[in-house]
User: Fold this.
Amino acid sequence: MAVVPERRTLVIAGIGTAAGLFSGLFGVGGGVVMVPLLILLLGMDERRATATSLAAIVLIASAATVTQGAYGKLHVVEGLLVGVPAVAGVLVGTWVQQRIPARRVSLLFALLLAVVAALMVAGVEPGGDDGGTRDALQIAAAIAIGLAAGVVSGLLGVGGGSLFVPGLALLLGLPHVDAEATSLLAIVPVSLVGSWRQHRYGNLDLRVGALLGTLAIPGALLGVVIVNAIPSRAVEIGFAALLLFVSSQLGRRGLGRDDPPDAVADASRDDPFEAPTGPAR
Assistant:
C-alpha cells in the first residue's frame, strides 16, 4: 500500500480536525466540512468526496457518541426511531446519486435548512415531552425525518445530523444537547451503510476515509466537551448559524452548473436495495 505523502497527510489532518470539531459541537457527521475540502484541497470528484466523507463519519460519530454517552445524553429509543428508517433512506440516496447530479436536490435542501434555522432562532417550543410516551403522529414524523435524513446523507455525503437534530428537538422534545448526542448515535449506522454502498459503486477511497476519520477523533471529543460546558441556548444559536452556513453553500452549489452527462453513472440498475455487482474501481 502506497504511503500517503507528508503534506497530503497534514491537509487530511486539518480537514479531519475541523470536521471532528463540527461533529462534536453540533451533533452532525462533519460531511459539510469534509466534502467541499476534499474536492478543493485533494482534487476528488464529487462522488468520491461524498463516499470518502461517509467512511470518515463512521469513526467520527462513533467516538463522539461514546463520549456523549459518558455524559448521559443519549436517548437510544429515539435514536433508533430516526436511525432505522434513515438506513433505508441512505440506500435510496446513494442509488439516486449515481443517476442524477446531486445539485438538483441542493436548492430544496438549502431552503429546508434555512426554515429550520429560523425556527431555532425564534425559539419555537418543542412538540414532544422529553422522552415520555410518543403519540402516533410524533412517531410518524420521526420516521419521516429519519428517512429524509438518510436520503440526504446518501446524496450529499453528510451524516444527516442537520435533519436529525432539529427533528429530535422540535418533534420529540429532546433538550438540544441530548438531540445532538442522539443524532450522533443515529448517524453511525447510516454512514456505515452509506459508505459500504458507495464502496460497492467504486467511489470510496477507504485509505483516505480511515485516515481522515482517525485524525478527526480528537476534534470530535473536544467538541463534545465544549458543547456540554456551555449554555443550551448558545448551542441552539450556534447550530442555527451552522444550518444557515450549510444552506448558503448548498444554495450556491444548486445554482451552479450541472455535471456533464458523462459524469452521471449508468442507471441500468433499478433496485436501490440490491447491491451493484460490478467490481469496485
